[in-house]
Every structure is written in structure tokens, then in C-alpha cells.
Amino acid sequence: MKKILGINTSHNVSFAYFEDDILKEYYEEDRFNKIKNFETLDPFYHDSYKYKALDKFKNITFDLVVFVSFDRGFILIEKDFIESYLKQIKYKELKFYFREHHIFHALSGFYFSKYDEAIGVVCDGGGEKLSNMDIKIDSMSNFNALESIFYVNKKNIKALYKHHSSGRYNFLELPFSEKNIKINNIDYKVSNNICGGLKYLKYREEAGFKNNEEGQLMGIAAYKNTDTNLDKNVLELAHKAQEETLQERIKLIEKAMTYSDCKNIILSGGYHLNCSNNFKLVKYFPELNFFVDPIAHDGGTAVGAGFAASNYAHNFKN
């Protein structure tokens, strides 16, 4: 019986325990320490932090432990934190998948969907850097993936399209418009245009909401055309956030349909916590079969990592 533990060290620190390809247990650390959206890299939590969720596994020796994160780059950034995890678990082998992020969102959704094949459409606030690819761009900015498209079946997963944007780092930007390029049969769009989850974060900030209050903005958008005392400027921003990003998701799904005639669509990544717009997508594309990842935020990447280690190891380089 092969035992694998997927660990997501990004936002929503999480642990996914697989036995022979079956998810047996899943935990998020913030459910135990009561710190919402707990993230390992927070400097307040040093290498002596004790992960309360790991107590659930104290009697298990894992054949493999797989670490994933949003792409922070050099693994030594997290060395002390990784050692803190490893002090609290028993294991035989380790793998680190810190260079990719969206693929684990897609695999999490695919695991839960039970589809034989699907198109994974991932959208978030940006968690996968462009730095590991040889694309020459006239900018000092960092480029992070905001949206991706994958084809996945029970044997393989293949990236088809990725849109990288420098919008997260406006203070570093030099003039740059857009470049489209193909590498290893993957279409890349590199631009300064923000979209999806990052656009939503920008509107949330402009509307005066705090970090992690995107749900407040989504809820307020429903009052746009009603008689309400809510601030009209906030209402307008909420409406724009919903409508503009919905149109972007429609275009991305239409693009996904150009790569495959598969009708099964998986939605994952933090943006797809937006249940209102998810429902509108289902209505807009009645001919497609939608499945929304039940752990669409970064916590779900622990599931994607554990599942990947069992079934898709040939798709990855450690």
C-alpha cells in the first residue's frame, strides 16, 4: 500500500494523504490554528512552528512526501520551513514541485471530477513565474501566470496555453505591450494586461476592502440595479469586477475549445471561488459539462500534487 502526502506551502497551507491513489484525508492548517489563509512563508512563523494538522499523521510513515507552492523560485527560500515540516513527519522519499502551480490546480479538479478526460481552465491572482523560460522581453518586470489551459486524461496532462502578466508588479514595469510565442507546443501570451483573479484583487483594493475580502465584492455586485444605500462607487466597482472578469472567462473557455473537442471543463484556481460567475458560465455554455474544483484555492494544490506523484510523475521534473 503506497502512502503519499501532498503538502501545499502556499496560502491555505494544506495536507492531502493518498493511499494507493485514493485521497483518504485532507486538512488545512488554518482550521487548526485559526489563522485565516495561513501561509508558511509568513516571517512570523519560523522553523520551530508546529503544524497542528500533522498530528493526524503521527503514526504514518509515508513512502513519498511531495511539496508544492506558488512559484516563489529558488527552493532555499523555504529551506527552514521545509525542515520544520520534516521534523514532524516520517517519510522515505521527498519531491519538490516548486516551479509549477496551475497544473496542480487542474489535477486537483480532475481528481474530484472523475472524468476520463477534461480541459482544465485555471485562473488566479498569479502564482507561476516566467523566469524559467527563454523568452526575451524588454522589461524589468516579473511575469506571473494569471490563466492557463490544460488537457488532462487518466495518463497525461498537457499545458496548452498560459497567459503571463506583469500587472502584479506595476512599480517595476518598463514599456511593454504583448508578445505571443510557442514553446514546446505550448502557446504563451506575455503582456502587461491584468485579468481574472489579479484584476479582481485590484478592484477589491480600489473599493476599500481588505485582503481576502473578495467575497464581499462579489456579494455587493448583486445589488447593482436595486434600491440600496450602498455606496454607488463601490457598487460600480463590484459590478465591473464581476462583469469584466466574466467576459474574460468566456473568452478563455472559447479559446480552450479551439484546442480540443472535449466537452468536459474543469474550473480551478482562486478566481473560481466566484460561484456567481461560475453559474453564469454554465448557463452561457449549455453544451459543455462543467465541474468546479471543490478546493479551487491554493489548498487544493496539495491534492493535485499527491495525485500527480502517483499517476503523472512522468510529466514532471523534480
What does this structure look like?
- The two termini are 23 Å apart.
- The chain is of the alpha/beta class and 318 residues long.
- It folds into 2 domains: 3-100 and 299-315, Nucleotidyltransferase, domain 5, CATH 3.30.420.40; 115-293, 2-Layer Sandwich (Nucleotidyltransferase, domain 5), CATH 3.30.420.40.
- It is globular.
- The strands form 3 sheets. Strands 11-12-10-9-8-13-14 form a 7-stranded mixed sheet, with helices on both faces.
- It contains 8 helices and 14 strands.
Concise summary:
The chain is an alpha/beta fold. The protein folds into 2 domains: 115 residues, ATPase, nucleotide binding domain (Nucleotidyltransferase, domain 5), CATH 3.30.420.40; 179 residues, ATPase, nucleotide binding domain (Nucleotidyltransferase, domain 5, 2-Layer Sandwich).
C-alpha termini separation? 23 Å
Cα radius of gyration in angstroms: 20 Å
CATH homologous superfamily (4th level) name of the largest domain? ATPase, nucleotide binding domain
Shape: globular
Poorly predicted regions:
none
Task: Describe the secondary-structure layout.
Elements: E1 3-8, E2 14-19, E3 22-28, H1 30-33, E4 61-62, E5 64-68, H2 79-86, E6 90-91, E7 94-97, H3 102-113, E8 117-123, E9 144-153, E10 157-165, E11 178-183, E12 186-191, H4 196-206, H5 214-221, H6 232-256, E13 264-268, H7 275-284, E14 289-292, H8 301-311
Parallel strand pairs: 1-5, 4-6, 5-7, 8-13, 10-12, 13-14
Antiparallel strand pairs: 1-2, 2-3, 8-9, 9-10, 11-12
